[in-house]
Design goal:
heterodimer; A: 812 residues; alpha+beta; Aldehyde Oxidoreductase, domain 4; Aldehyde Oxidoreductase, domain 3; seven-stranded mixed β-sheet; five-stranded mixed β-sheet; 18 helices; globular; B: Uridine Diphospho-n-acetylenolpyruvylglucosamine Reductase, domain 2; Uridine Diphospho-n-acetylenolpyruvylglucosamine Reductase, domain 3; Enolase-like, domain 1; three-stranded parallel β-sheet; 12 helices; 13 strands; 25% strand; binds flavin-adenine dinucleotide
Chain lengths: 812, 300
Amino acid sequence: MTTTDNPPQSDTEADTTEVPLSDAGNPIGFGRMLRKEDARFLRGQGNYVDDVRLPGMLTGVILRAPMAHARINSIDTSAAEAVDGVHAVLTGETLEGVGLSWMPTLSNDTQSVLVTDKVRFQGQEVAFVIADDEYIAQDAAQRIVVDYEPLPAVADAKQALADDAPLIRDDVEGRTDNKIYDWEAGNKDETDRAFADADVVVRQEMLYPRTHPAPMETCGSVAHMDPVTGKLVIWTTTQAPHAHRTLYALVAGLPEHKIQVISPDIGGGFGNKVGIYPGYVCSVVGSIVTGKPVKWMEDRAGNLMSTSFARDYHMTGEIASTADGTITGLRVDVLADHGAFNGVAQPTKYPAGFFHIFTGSYDYGAAHCNVRAVYTNKAPGGVAYACSFRITEAVYLVERMVDCLADELDMDPAELRMKNLLQPEQFPYTTPTGWEYDSGDYPRALQKALDMAGYEALRDEQADVRAAYDNGESTMLMGIGLSFFTEGVGAGPRKHMDILGLGMADGCELRIHPTGKAILRISVQSQGQGHETTFAQIVSQELGIPPEDIEVVHGDTDNTPFGLGTYGSRSTPVSGAAAAVVSHRIRDKARIIAATALECDPDDLEWEPGRWFVRGAPEQGQTIQETAFAAHGSLELPEGVEGHLDAQTVYNPPNLTYPFGAYICVTDVDTATGEVKVRRFIAVDDCGPRINPMIVEGQVHGGLADGIGMALMEVMAFDRDGNHLGGSFMDYLLPTSMECPSWELGETVTPSPHHPIGVKGVGESATVGSPPAVVNSVLDAIGVRHADMPLTPAAVWRAMQGSPLRTDLAIE
Amino acid sequence: MQVPETFDYERASTVEDAIQRLTAHGDEARVIAGGHSLLPMMKLRLAVPEVLIDINDLPGLDHVRLDGDELAIGALVRHAAILDDPILGEHYPIFADAERKIADPLVRNRGTIGGSLCQADPAEDLSAVVTALKGSCVIQSANGRRTVPMREFHTGPWETAVGDAELLVEVRIPVRTSVGSSYHKVERRVGDWAVAAAGAFVQLDGDTIAAVGLGLSAVGAPDMTCPDAEQALVGGPASAEAFAEAARIVHDAVSPTADQRGPVDYKRHLAGELTRRALTDAARRARSGSDPVDSEEGNA
Ligand SMILES: Cc1cc2nc3c(=O)[nH]c(=O)nc-3n(C[C@H](O)[C@H](O)[C@H](O)COP(=O)(O)OP(=O)(O)OC[C@H]3O[C@@H](n4cnc5c(N)ncnc54)[C@H](O)[C@@H]3O)c2cc1C
């Protein structure tokens, strides 16, 4: 198959504006600069959890259950304990003794740490062996004898509520079925009316299959309980160190000031590292029991089989419209598979996350969703893989439904979208399910994507390709798929949003040293997003200090203020705002100090980046560095003004920010083999002003690759017995550069009106927006209304035969 | 980390030395070549050898040469070397076709043809290539060498004709004139094992097929081939109709198993379609003389 390579394009507005450069050649403020953290990563000098080596440290490994549902009659650990070099073997019984065999999940459910009664998913944690090293621990784990009594498993969510379905959570008193909750949002009556009045109604069932974020670094921890000081230090792979500290305090009953959580360099999170896993707890208990530091680092199979997955949403959508294609309503019924424990991380008030943003980017007033969640014999989790709290599922639903409607109306999908998009003057816009979109110019973004793609010419080429196919000259078809997404990120206003009672606000501290260099302490934690660079650039933009002069400290609870961490694209919208606010406070204080030094009224001073000067006499002024020294010096300060130059804040966002974008994917499909090649991908993103356009583009590149992965290859399927069919990278396929075209990126800039510097989050935009574009493209090529992801060659071929595969179960 | 059980490690210096060590340890020992099949199995603890005999230092096993009317390929020749080898490229572009779709460059730099054939994975590619070319395997033991036709080399999934104290030392392929060859494989992603694959050589006498060979991977074809389809082609025209008929015979003859790569009907369909493509390209290459490997099908 030939590939048409397109030169990488970049159409970025920020690049054209002039930015002053520092002596080191970095932009003072926003602009492209290389990442400050890359020097250590590129030289192999990063410090990950697995790099932590403490004197006397032991290693723990987990023995996992080989089947999905089984009562444990007995566990005999004696042979394992007898192995030379083994220090302890923990089981559910041991943990029960210290009240830690079960722990709360982020959704206020409970989850087993080590099994006490029965196994509820394959790969579940059964025992924890602590030994001198991993080899010994692994050998010993094999010698543990467990008497399992297999039980029938629920692997198919659609069977979870059947009358004869085995009861999974018999640990919860009074529970008689596998239902977790029923939840609804929107205006049901109005929606029913819209559907009754509609000219056209299209209904489609679709699955967003279970996928895994699969970060390059798996999860792990090193726990060290100092027997003398009673202080517990945990180096751990967490996206939310402060939340973890509080949870350890609550769960284990340890005093919070005696717990230090350190999240060093993290090799990717994508939501996988939000929750607390049994392995972390076992390493803590292991350290208490042995009196030594205990490291636990899971292997790839453990990561894929037991840690937080994403999606597993069975959705039935219905879209209503007039005969000429004006959308009048959307409703959806969801069956959500949460696995054996409800371990979803999301604001308490929203059990289905932000799924109810499913109305998308279009103008209609009637919408309703109902989400029914069930337990199955699969691993717990649900919100992970850069999904913006289930906006991924929502965007997939609406963008597929719009294409289904276009198919029904025989209308061009670009035209149908353009006709129904919200207009710029409608913002701020309140959706039928209650979200207030802050700002947007949707038609402009879509038009830009269409122009970059050369949409008309592509449609002409597609017609030629189809003609050759129809004549039997070729097996190839070509597809063009669109998606338009709106995300709500930056959770969130604390009166609406908390996780286990912890409000989703973030602290920040900025201290300017006497010489004008700065240290910024933030509550969020980078897993590769480049916070050490971007946050320095925010301060740089607001204070005119070169970014290389600003040290960003994060990921250590003893050295940073409290906050809820990095996920749901919340770092820039929430912590980024906090960094801007502390910078503004410093600027205001610097004004008073500079005025004192210059012997004038603060009101007579004007700001230019990096300097206060006397209005009308620009040569009289003081740089922020000079002011910093003065603030620490002998200068007599006015009454009530303290010395030094530092500030702190807690930022409670008034609303979410709403990034959006228009994506177009061009595919070539070999109908005789089902193979799909992504030929082009055009992505126009609007995340407001771009702090570092290079980092933004990097985030978009990664998300687009994720989208190709999900659309074409990634899935965790299960056989009828609940056996996991994606437990290694030979089975769980991640995309490589070979599956990715040269991305064509574009940009529009619509600032958020309520954010101090107008920026919106972008970390998940492409992961959210790209899967429907790829799927729409493939289905556009083969002329089939719907087939479920992943569109592997087999799935594509079967869709063309009219017998689509069920992708969440074993292929039989 | 996935870690194997404890094992001993010995490094053999010659073929004879390796055979002696294998004889001494009996069935507790395993040969290790590139290690890209054996080590993953050991880490998953599916293979638990007590001793590994490393054969990477063995002299005289890394050649590709013309030897009389056959091509001789040493057992230690790496995938990467096969991909780039000019002699193989000239005689049988099927090798490069297949190599471009085997694993990724990291694996190809280490994995060997000997290890590939001895692993005897039913989805292995080079076994299908050597099967298509009707090659043979030279096995050495303390008693000397013996030659086994490729089509008898695999005695079952993951089982070969190589005994406990034996080594595969060479793979031999007959040289043919007026020949073309080709390999087609469908994978879910670069580096994935085959969903299905088919390779073929076609030797022409004018427009008539003088000889033909088919190799099929991952579709449950006995001995990785389909003699009925081969017989139907020999002596007939190298035409689209003949290839379609051969594809139909293959489609009906194979017995793939369903797995996450695809259901039975799809794999059966692919076996036919890829056979048709392999035969078509092989015949085209036979007609155009020594046709260099098509360059547009770049791979990792
Ligand atoms: C990620 C990945 C992807 C892969 N994808 C593919 C693919 O798409 N297609 C494909 O065909 N293969 C694939 N492979 C397999 C790869 O080609 C292996 O390297 C090859 O199959 C084995 O060669 P080796 O030299 O590494 O053998 P080893 O792993 O060293 O040995 C394999 C077996 O052969 C035995 N053995 C080795 N040499 C000899 C000898 N001379 N005599 C007797 N016994 C011997 C060993 O004892 C062992 O049992 C993949 C492997 C990996 C890791």
